[in-house]
Amino acid sequence: MPRKGGKRPANTQMSEPAPKRFKSSYNKTITVLVGPEEDKFIVHKSTACDNSPFFKAACSQHWVEGQDKVVRLPDTTAKLFETFLHWAYTKDLKMEGVDDSTTADQPRTYDLGSVWGLANYLQTPALRNKVIDRLLQKFDAMPHTAVPRSALNHIWDLSPPDATIRRLLIDLHLTRMSRQMFEAFEDEWPQDLILAAARLHFASEEKRKMLRSPCFEERACYHEAEDGEGEEEGGAELAKAEVD
Fold first, then answer.
1. Three-state secondary structure readout of 40-89
2. In whole angstroms, how far apart are CA 34 and each of 37, 61, 64, 91, 214?
């Protein structure tokens, strides 16, 4: 029986916070004009900004683009941008539309490099990592195939010297390229690939025996950090073979 005049016992149970009211993130759009012909894309602002620091900055009020809600990408193509958009909405890298000769099962290394280049421009490491995964899957299915020279030079034109895609392709190429192939096109190889080949040549026999072609199971060794995660190190490390 409650005491008269006593204080009401405190409720020891924590009340749950009221659920937040849903606010649609698809009610704002931006216009993206792609390529020299300025093909027009209407994109949800939240999707573009959540997947690309480039778009997040471009949509800022500090930029003219953010005030006008129009972003221009003159140096890419509509097909490449469609590939980025499909990935941004679904997280699926669909390669069929990038080039007429590219299929879902066997995307061209050249085209994968083009997607990596756009992802690099848009500052999207998650998509760059997805390209790394597809490259490894592709070369896992073709264990005796070297990286095409045209694709190598194309990717070198699009990537900075410390890009993990360069390290991957060097590691793949040096474990698959014949001496005859190397000498036949010695004037066409990227300089850092030639330097890696020289380091491998002078490495100890024991280290050369330990080297193997990268595979899909080791993909994390070539991934970049996403959202502040620490970058993993490792891989075939062909380019870093030391001289004894």
1. EEEEEHHHHHHHCHHHHHHCCCCCHHHHHCEEEECCCCHHHHHHHHHHHH
2. 7, 21, 17, 21, 35
How confident is the model at residue 35, as a pLDDT? 96
Q: What are 15-74's pLDDT values in tens digits?
A: 445 444 334 467 889 999 999 999 999 999 999 999 999 999 998 866 665 567 899 999
Q: Rounded distance, CA 130 to CA 65, Å?
A: 28
pTM: predicted TM-score of the whole model, two decimal places: 0.76
According to DSSP, the β-strands at 39-44 and 29-34 are antiparallel
Determine the pLDDT at residue 187.
Answer: 81
Tokens encoding 138? 């592709």
Contact 152, 190 (CB under 8 A): yes
pLDDT of residue 98: 72
Radius of gyration of the chain (CA): 25
Per-residue tokens: 175: 């474990």
Tell me, what's the pLDDT at 101? 57
Token representation of residue 191:
């300089």
Residue 27 to residue 4: CA distance in whole angstroms: 57
The widest CA-to-CA distance across the chain, in whole angstroms, is 102
Token pair 């000769």 is found at: 101
Q: What are the residue boundaries of the structural domains of the chain, listed by start?
A: 27-75, 117-240
